[in-house]
Amino acid sequence: MFRRKAAAAVALALSAALLSSCWDKTELNELALVSMIGLDRDPESGIYTIRLQVINPTSGSTARGTPGGEQSPVYTYEANVRTLAEADLKFYHLIPRKLFLHHAKAVLISGRAARQGMRDFINFSELQPSARTSVPLFVVDGSIGEVMRTYTPLERTPAESLSSRIELLADYALQSGRDVEVRDVIERSERDEWIVLPMVAVTPKTGNLDSRDVDASIDANRNQLRLNGGAVIRNYRMVGRLDDNELVLYHLLNGDKGTFVRRVPFRNGHVTAVLLSRGTKRRLDWENGRPVVRIRLSLELSTLAMNEYHPRTLEDIRALEKAVSESITDELDAFLDKTRAKGWDLAGIRSLLGRKAPKLPNPDRAAADAKIRFEIKTLFTGMGNLSRLYEGSGGTS
Amino acid sequence: MTHMWLLYLVLAPVIVLQAAWLLYAKKYRDTAVFLAISLSGFALWGSVAYGRPIILNAWIGRIIEAAKSLVSF
Amino acid sequence: MISRGQFYFLTVNFTLGTTLFVTINNMIEEAGPDAWMMPLWAGLGGMLAALLWIALLRCAPGRSPVEIARDAWGPIAGLIVGILYLLVFCTIAAWVLRNLSDFMNVTIMPKTPPTIFHIMFLLVGAYAVAQGSETVGRMNAVITPFLFFPFWLSLALAAEEWKWERLEPAFRDPWAFFQYPSLLAFPFLEAFALTMFWPKVRPGAAGALVSGIASAAVSLSLVLFMVTGLLGPERAARINFPIYTIVQEVSIGRVLVIIHSVLTVTLITLIFVKLLVLLYAAFETIDRLFRPTVRWPHLLALAILISAGARTVYENPVQNRLLIDRYLLIYDGFYSVLIPALLLVTIWIRRSLAGRARKG
Q1: Contact between residue C193 and residue C18 where contact means Cβ atoms under 8 Å apart
Q2: What is the pTM of this model?
Q3: How far is Cα C313 from Cα C319, in angstroms, rounded to an integer?
Q4: Cβ pair C304:B37 closer than 8 A
Q5: Which of A17, A26, A100, C291 has a 20 to 30 Å separation from C93 between CA atoms?
Q6: Mean pLDDT over all residues of chain C?
Q7: Under a CB-based contact definition with an 8 Å cutoff, are residues C306 and C121 in contact?
Q8: Peptide bond into A136 cis (omega under 30)
Q9: By CB neighbour count within 10 A (0-12 exposed, 13-18 middle, 19+ buried), where does C326 fall?
Q10: Is there a contact between A384 and C240 if contact means CB atoms under 8 Å apart?
């Protein structure tokens, strides 16, 4: 009898081990949700400055607008450290909650750090099992400290505002693409390919810099962030920049799909074409031992924004399609001439050679020598809500 | 051009499986009719996927022009 | 069996179908303020064509044009005519779908891929067709009031903008239709697809078909009249979807500003009816030609063919319109007037020969 009781007691005691629960449990209200990360390094002193923008969990629709309840939706913390690993520890001098980086929507790197090389940041980030590299990476034009302390209207956090803007720019302006994330930088750099990242800058400020003046002012062009051109990156290092117009051509060349608008010379004037890029195909040929790359691009043309002209006959349509193809070809040729003269291989010729002709003795030379031909196929597919334009004389063209 | 995989991974198996089922059920006439219609649809889809669509409208125009020139002689 | 009333509504909705989308601005461009007279002339032509079809169908009660062709011209020529009709119905169905996706892409859903519209409509249409002609007829009769009242109500709400002077000078060009006869082909000759329903309609449906076409012509004329009076011939001739624009510009008080979604639903339902009739006609053609033992595999094949056709039926709206102006009357006239007329002549000759043989 006693033995039985003892056995039952032991069994019960042992089963207590099952009650250990989870060591790694974290409650949501014990976390500091990081929404944006800012990276900087002073090239002279070698000191890293890491900034984290943490979401304020209590701010929301109720906190804003109520008297006395005005709270910032995000808080920016800053740590100056000698090695990146110190940053974590330094932040706990300031942050009462456990850092949670998974939620980050944007990573910013200062222009000077990008010019110097961002490999160390990326190595450190990839070493951390908790790091996520599917986050867009922006290069800051100007002071990163100021960017990290700037609010954006409409969106609650600046990171959301930035990531949403690059998606819109990709869909409607082709000034951004899908390949602007940290992982893309790693992949392209490791393959010795080129990548262009969006650049962000602060717009002119008025009023008190650190207050939410942006909410109080109607002028949304001031006191906020602006995407501005692209940073050309090779080997984890920024080597130059593209303006907004060149960004379109770069993304077109890169096979990104999206809508964009071009002014095209046509019949002694210009027309505005809304174009939808359907992607590219590359083919490698050889002519007298010299590589020839054919880039085939298909575009869909819409007259949705063409307030200058409306095609009426099949000949008009063909002429319009031809004018668009030729104009885009010219623009791409000029763009490639300019960038190749700087030694930039934005069309990815070297990697194409590396894939299609891996036994080439000197691929860099061959890539520089390669001839690039564009075969652009434009197809008129859609139009707006007018089947004929109004013809009164009160226009400019 | 970009959706070639849809053609071969979705449309082709649907047609083949349906035809196989009809054959298995010993409905030979149905199989022939099904294949005739669906394969012509497949060919049209193919023309779209390979970026050279067969524009039906233009073909109708061409046939009528040909018939006109036949009649006028 | 579907009743004569259901057949009448089917005829009206089929004829109005895509017409309300596609040709309104073309007609106003051709005829200016007198555009409302064009559908009346075209409807008259359509009624004459319908009388021809009725004469043909009465020769062989219970049989569809496909079978009549086989009886009159033998199995091989009959098969060729049958396949031709199958292709015609598929092409028009593809056309209808493409018009629909063009409308949706231009007006309210620019990012949705057109093929999604095509496949979804075909899916629902195939389900209804698989249930048989009664379902098609009954469904259409049930939804008709839900199309009729919202449509005329939303146009009536716009009547505030009405100006009589937009319709002036009146009666300047009443014969404009004869310079633009493709309106007869589309939509009135396309109503030939309805003859595939004929064997399933209760006897004596001739009046339903003819009056259906007449009602559609009058409705179309009324729509054109209202569009001209509400938008003015200058804007209406240029805007691609004038009815949509009219309703878009209506606001009821300060709150109800977006009522054009109601109109959109009405219009796409009308288009759906047209697709349904064409899909039924195509399926019925297969049924009469090959006597299949299964339904769904053939509907699947038709869906594959029509969804592909909807992508390739025309390149762009401009090309579509040019080719419609040039060829549509010949195209539609060939299968809906020439072939039925030849069939009728063959049957009459055969009958008179047979009658003479009996006498002799």
Answers
A1: no
A2: 0.86
A3: 11
A4: yes
A5: C291
A6: 90
A7: no
A8: no
A9: middle
A10: yes
pLDDT > 90: what percent of chain C?
A: 61
Percent of chain A with pLDDT strictly greater than 90: 51
Name the β-bridge partners of B6.
none
Structure tokens at C173: 């060009």
B71 and chain A in contact, CB less than 8 A: no
CA angle C251, C255, C257 (to 5 degrees): 35
Q: Is A335 exposed, middle or buried (0-12, 13-18, 19+ CB in 10 A)?
A: buried
- Domain range for B34: 4-72
- Among A88-97, A332-341, C39-48, C209-218, the least confident range: A88-97
pLDDT by residue (tens digit) across A215-224?
667 888 888 8
The residue extents of the domains of chain C are 4-359
- Cβ–Cβ < 8 Å for C217, C225: no
| Whether A385 and C234 lie within 8 Å, measured CB to CB | no
Domain C4-359, CATH: 1.20.1740.10
Question: Buried (b) or exposed (e) across B20-36, using 16+ Cβ within 10 A?
Answer: eebeeeebeebbebbbe
Q: Is residue A195 a contact partner of residue A179, using CB atoms and an 8 Å limit?
A: yes
Write the DSSP symbol of residue C185. Answer: I
This complex has an ipTM of 0.94
CA neighbor of A349 nearest in space, from A232, A243, A254, A251: A254
Question: How far apart are the C-alpha atoms of C102 and C268, rounded to whole Å?
Answer: 12
B64 touching C, CB under 8 A?
yes
Q: Is A28 on the interface with C (CB under 8 A)?
A: no
Chain A residues lying within 8 Å of B2, measured CB to CB: 278-279
Residue ranges of the domains in chain A? 27-242, 255-389
Helix axes C296-312, C114-130, angle to 10 degrees: 150
Touching partners of A (3+ C-beta pairs < 8 Å): B, C
Q: Is residue A20's pLDDT more than 80?
A: no
**Percentage of the residues of chain A whose pLDDT score is greater than 70:** 94
Q: Is residue C31 a contact partner of residue C171, using CB atoms and an 8 Å limit? A: no
Which candidate, A260, A82, A282, A101, places its Cα nearest to that of A177?
A: A260
Distance from C-alpha of C33 to C-alpha of C234, rounded to nearest angstrom: 9
As a whole number of angstroms, the distance between CA C333 and CA C185 comes to 7
Half-sphere CA count of C58, side-chain side, radius 13 A: 12
Neighboring chain B residues of A298 at a CB cutoff of 8 Å? 1, 51
Q: Is A36 helix (H, G, I), strand (E, B) or coil?
A: strand
DSSP A162: H
Question: Both tokens of residue A212?
Answer: 């939410």
Question: Position of tokens 């294949």?
Answer: B35
CATH topology of domain A255-389: GMP Synthetase; Chain A, domain 3 (3.30.300)
Secondary element (H or E) of residue C27: helix C24-31
Number of domains in chain B: 1
A389 touches chain C (CB under 8 A): yes
Average pLDDT over residues A326-337: 95
Q: What's the residue count for chain B?
A: 73
B51 contact A CB<8A? yes
**Both ends of chain A: CA-CA distance in Å?**
107
